[in-house]
Amino acid sequence: MPSASAAWRAAKGVQPDSPSAVRADDLLAPLFAGMDAEHARYVARWLAEVFGGPATYTAERGGYATMVGRHIGRGISEAQRRRWVNLMMDAADEAGLPDDPEFRAAFASYIEWGTRLAVRNSQPGADPVRHAPVPPAAFALASAWNWPGNLPPDLVEASRPDTVALVLSPT
Hints:
single chain, mainly alpha
């Protein structure tokens, strides 16, 4: 599996929603209408950060709170999520992300996890957790089921990365 630095260098090249890709797609065009022209770059910076690169997204865009806020009220459908995931996988190939099975499994799992949260957070009446750290890919992959908002209230504290082993431990 590639190092985190190799992964983030490759991830920052992933731009799944280039204007031409999403505007040409009947399913995604309405979702991306009026979207900031730099959206693909923001996605790439987010991915670079979660895969171990510098916290550029957080420094420039505001981290997790901004990411969640950008999805609230968009009403993303499951069909739109799946289409965007497919574009992400194509973009990963085009950007030259490592193609070893371990990395690609981790990348695909992270994208699945994140897009499912985006769908949930985008629905009418959703009240997602708005302030949390940017979840590193390894943490998200190991504990997607217990990220804040997916946990019973008494376990929210256990969702912190430094205590996740306690939640996952069978004892």
